[in-house]
Amino acid sequence: MTEKTVIFEDSTPTVHAYWIQDRKESSEIKGTYDFLPSCTCSACGYHAERPIGLCPQCDAIMDAAGPAAALTEEG
């Protein structure tokens, strides 16, 4: 019997993204924002009710550092 080797090629590259937390202007303190539990995918713009580990629309892995993390890094 002959063995066959099947090689699978990943046809789509892995995308790493982050959730952008939705916010609205605060009704209590002018010039500030209240953050909402909903968020938006930075890769495709999908709107989710809460942040999860994988975007259901574009399959992006939500492990990338967002812009706020870059501001807190020293260097």
Topology:
Layout: E1 19-25, E2 33-41, E3 47-48, H1 67-72
Antiparallel strand pairs: 1-2, 2-3
Short description:
By secondary structure, this protein is mainly beta.
Quick check: average pLDDT? 81
Number of strands: 3
Give Rg in angstroms: 19 Å
N-C termini distance: 60 Å
The chain-level structural class is: mainly beta
Q: Number of helical segments?
A: 1
Please mark out the parts with pLDDT under 50 across 5 or more consecutive residues, or reply none. Answer: none
Would you mind describing this structure in some detail?
By secondary structure, the chain is mainly beta. The protein has a domain at 19-66. It is 8% helix and 24% strand. The chain has one helix and three strands, in the order E-E-E-H. It has one helix at residues 67-72, and strands spanning 19-25, 33-41, 47-48. A three-stranded antiparallel sheet has the order 1-2-3, with no helix packed on it. A hairpin with a 7-residue loop joins strand 1 and strand 2.
Essential attributes:
mainly beta, 8% helix, 3-stranded antiparallel beta sheet, 3 strands, 75 residues
